[in-house]
Amino acid sequence: MTIKKILFPYDSSVYSVNATQYALDLAKLCNAHVTIINCYEGWDPNISEITESLVREIRVNRKKDAELILKKVGEIFENQGVEYTLETVDGEPGTTLVNRSKSRNYDLIIMGSHGHSEIAGLFLGSVTHKVLNTIHCPVLIVP
Q1: Domains of the chain from N-terminus onward
Q2: To which H or E segment does residue 121 belong?
Q3: In the prediction, which pLDDT does 78 show?
Q4: Hey, CA dihedral for 13, 18, 21, 26, is it positive or negative?
Q5: Cα–Cα 20 to 30 A to 129, which of 9, 39, 45, 102?
Q6: How far apart are CA 93 and CA 71, in angstroms?
Q7: Residue 22 has what pLDDT?
Q8: How far apart are alpha carbons 68 and 113 in whole angstroms?
């Protein structure tokens, strides 16, 4: 098995910070490209008490926050001899990661065992649990 494309969800939680070095080291060993992704959820526009302009502002702010998170991890990957891209995606993290991995044919997903999701799983974070139960490529879980 060759690993040429790695999907690395990063949310700045201690678990994704721990997974960063694994993603970087494995990418170096395999000469793989790493797509570092941060999923943020926009505001539900169906809430009638919130104006459309406020919903747009919330989405813009959440995207800016996601970009800042990725900028920090990008600094770790910078000048390390690893090809990588940083991507922010508006969407529920578990579903987004599953869909992205299927559509892009990643060879491996590397992720922390827990993240910043609001609902934690019993032993693993809820996003990690969802990915493990619906993905069809190898997943490396880093505690």
Answers
A1: 5-142 (3.40.50.620)
A2: none
A3: 97
A4: negative
A5: 45
A6: 19
A7: 96
A8: 22
Give the pLDDT confidence of 95-108 residue by residue, as tens digits.
Answer: 888 888 777 689 99
Please name the helix (run of DSSP H) or strand (run of DSSP E) that holds residue 85, with its range, or none.
Answer: strand 84-90
Q: Is the pLDDT of residue 26 over 50?
A: yes
Q: Give the bridge partners for 141, in sequence order.
A: 111
Q: What's residue 123's pLDDT?
A: 41
- Amino acid identity of residue 139, one-letter, is V
Residue 9 phi, psi (nearest 5): -70, 135
Provide mean pLDDT across the span 9-29.
95
- Interacting residues of 55 by C-beta distance below 8 A, sequence separation 6+: 42, 43, 45
- 4 — alpha (psi -120 to 50), left (phi > 0) or beta? alpha
- From residue 108, how far is each of 6, 74, 112, 117 by CA, in Å? 5, 19, 13, 22
Distance of CA 45 to the CA centre of its chain: 24
